[in-house]
Amino acid sequence: MGIFDRFKKEAAASKQGAEPHEPALAGIARVISDGDETVLGGVAACMERPAGWFAEHQDRYQERGVDSAEDADLVQWLGLVDILEEHGWVCERDWKDELEDFTYFVQNLHGFQKLGLELNPDWLTEDEDISAWCGILAEKWAAQGVCLAAIDIDSDSYVLFPVSVAQLADLQRLASEIGHRIDAAERM
């Protein structure tokens, strides 16, 4: 069975966590994107041919200071982030982001809309930073069991997405399995 075939079985699988034998990277993509077929197809292509994926998307990697496909793990991890961002599931924000930009990009994420979240800009103050804002949002969304999480890409930016606390635990486990980190954004 090919890797893409496993994604087709997701209708029968629980959407709460990754399938037990699903590769970790694909499981992360499935949870964050709520099973978005386009995202899953892109991640499958990146996983199957990291060097080819790198060559096809070299400009994105060069923007991140990666000039070689030698590190297939890095190519796949950053490829996952780029695919999720391209399809509106995550947003990458600079550590010194402006409050107005932060709220705009978070509110426009697919997950924000699917989870029916509210983000009142009056909850946040301009003189704080992303970590503080995410902590406040975690408090505001606690009753819904949701927080803003972040994918660690070893930079000073935040790759943000809203997720249920239950799914965050699964994402942390999956990322750890492949030597990476996903956590609540206020802890990044």
Topology:
Elements lengths: L2 H6 L15 H10 L3 H12 L1 H7 L1 H6 L8 H15 L4 E4 L4 H9 L2 H5 L15 H12 L4 E6 L5 E8 H13 L4 E3 L4
Antiparallel strand pairs: 1-3, 2-3, 2-4
Helix pairs in contact: 2-3, 2-6, 2-10, 3-4, 3-6, 4-6
* Average predicted local confidence, pLDDT: 90
Q: End-to-end distance, in Å? A: 37 Å
Please give the largest β-sheet: 4 strands, antiparallel
Number of strands: 4
Number of helices: 10
Rg over CA atoms, rounded to whole Å, is 16 Å
Strand content: 5-15%
Strand numbers in spatial order across the main sheet: 1-3-2-4
Domain unit count: 2
Helix-strand sequence: HHHHHHEHHHEEHE
The shape, in one word, is globular
Helix content: 40-55%
Written overview of the protein:
With 188 residues, the chain is α+β, with helices and mostly antiparallel strands. The protein folds into two domains: 1-89, no CATH class; 90-188, no CATH class. The chain has ten helices and four strands; from the N terminus they run H-H-H-H-H-H-E-H-H-H-E-E-H-E. A four-stranded antiparallel sheet has the order 1-3-2-4, with helices on both faces. Helix 2 packs antiparallel against helix 10 (165-177), helix 3 (37-48) crosses helix 4 (50-56) and helix 3 (37-48) runs antiparallel to helix 6 (72-86). The N and C termini lie far apart (37 Å). The model is unreliable at 1-21 (pLDDT under 50).
